[in-house]
Amino acid sequence: MKDDKIIYPELVEQCHAYLLSRGVDVSKDVVYRNMIKSHLIDQNGQPTQKAINEGIVSETNDPNSLAVFKAQNPLFLPYDDCHFIWMAESQEWGADLYVAEDVSKRILDGQVVGDKEHAKAVLNYLKKQRDDYRE
């Protein structure tokens, strides 16, 4: 049976998306079974206390939570939390230049899906800023 005919729990979907973004080609069924085997979710797809205690999932669905933001945007999962800041005025998360540059490079290298023209523009902007700073 194909994965697209089965409705998987949200945490399985998020983990699957993350693995795909990292180049790991695995079925959702394998992800589901391994998450249960590792005691990260129960058979209903709910996070276990172990997963909460280890910070793998958040107890809350607070939209301002960085964990929730990263779960909704798996592209940012590989980056340490110190690279992100909550911008109160716009009520959204922002990433530092390291993340902006690295994500842009990953998009252009085809490692992740994204707008290649925008990625090129970001890299050109960052290069110009560095060149201007050196002068």
Structure notes:
There is one protein chain. The chain has 135 residues and is mainly alpha-helical. It is 48% helix and 6% strand. It is built from six helices and two strands, in the order ααααββαα. The chain has helices spanning 10-21, 28-37, 49-53, 66-72, 97-108, 116-134, and strands at 84-87, 92-95. A two-stranded antiparallel sheet has the order 1-2. Helix 1 crosses helix 2 and helix 5 (97-108) crosses helix 6. The protein is elongated and about 60 Å long. It starts with 9 loop residues before the first helix and ends with a helix. The model has no long low-confidence stretch (mean pLDDT 84).
Number of helices: 6
How many strands, what sense, and barrel or not for the largest sheet?
Answer: 2 strands, antiparallel
- Helix and strand pattern: HHHHEEHH
What is the average of the pLDDT values?
84
Quaternary structure of the protein: single chain
Going by helix content, strand content and strand pairing, the class is: mainly alpha
Helix content: 40-55%
What integer value in Å does the Rg equal?
18 Å
Total number of beta strands: 2
Low-confidence segments, given as residue ranges, are none
Distance between the ends: 61 Å
Biggest sheet, strands in spatial order? 1-2
